[in-house]
């Protein structure tokens, strides 16, 4: 855990969040600044700074993130589709340096995204 990381603080319960899912590997919660009607963040509990820091040891946690994302999308009624976004580093739009996945839906999503 990184005590200076806002997402680590959410994992620890020191910062409140509307948690939608939690297990031993990941936490999912609503984004406080949503860009779509459904905007959920899924994060590993382990502090992994960026997508570039993943190794083969992280395959279980990344698989869990996608499985839970699919389940949360179904619970949210996103039958018309949804998007999962991962930003990596500053030029990729990453603002919080704790790996996180955005589950977006509830409206028509355009392409390219930005």
Structural account:
With 114 residues, the protein is α+β, with helices and mostly antiparallel strands. It has a single domain (6-105), classed as HIT family, subunit A, CATH 3.30.428. It contains two helices and five strands, in the order αβββαββ. It has helices at residues 6-12, 59-75; strands at residues 19-22, 26-30, 38-44, 82-85, 101-105. The chain has a five-stranded antiparallel beta sheet, with helices on one face. Strand 1 and strand 2 form a beta hairpin. The model has no long low-confidence stretch (mean pLDDT 96).
Index terms:
HIT family, subunit A, 2 helices, 5 strands, alpha+beta, 114 residues, globular
CATH superfamily: HIT-like
Which strand order does the major sheet show? 1-2-3-5-4
CATH topology: HIT family, subunit A
Class per helix and strand makeup: alpha+beta
Overall residue-averaged pLDDT value: 96
Principal-axis shape: globular
Round the Cα radius of gyration to an integer and report it. Answer: 14 Å
Mind describing the biggest β-sheet?
Answer: 5 strands, antiparallel
Count of spatially separate domains = 1
**What fraction of the residues are assigned to beta strands by DSSP?**
15-25%
CATH architecture: 2-Layer Sandwich
Number of helices: 2
Q: Tally the beta strands.
A: 5
How many angstroms does the end-to-end distance come to? Answer: 31 Å
How much helical structure, as a percent, in the residues? Answer: 10-25%
CATH class: Alpha Beta
N-to-C SSE series?
A: HEEEHEE
Which blocks of ≥5 consecutive residues have pLDDT under 50?
none
């Amino acid at each position: 855990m990184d005590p200076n990381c806002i997402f680590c603080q959410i994992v620890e319960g020191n910062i409140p969040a509307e948690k939608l899912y939690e297990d031993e590997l990941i936490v999912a919660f609503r984004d406080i600044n949503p860009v779509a009607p459904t905007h959920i963040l899924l994060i590993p509990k382990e502090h992994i700074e960026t997508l570039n820091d993943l190794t083969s040891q992280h395959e279980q946690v990344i698989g869990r993130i996608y499985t839970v994302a699919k389940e949360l999308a179904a619970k949210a009624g996103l039958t018309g589709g949804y998007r999962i976004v991962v930003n990596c580093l500053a030029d990729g739009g990453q603002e919080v340096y704790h790996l996180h996945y955005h589950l977006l839906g509830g409206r028509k999503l355009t392409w390219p995204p930005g």
